[in-house]
What does this fold into?
Amino acid sequence: MKTLAYATATLLATLASGVVSTASFLFVYQGETPEELLK
It folds into this structure.
């Protein structure tokens, strides 16, 4: 049972890390800032 819990926690942590990394990459490299935000 402990092995299953450890494997599940590892899988969820890896998945969360991948989602956060992808979102951060897309946010940082999204391109030009709209003019409305620069005012």
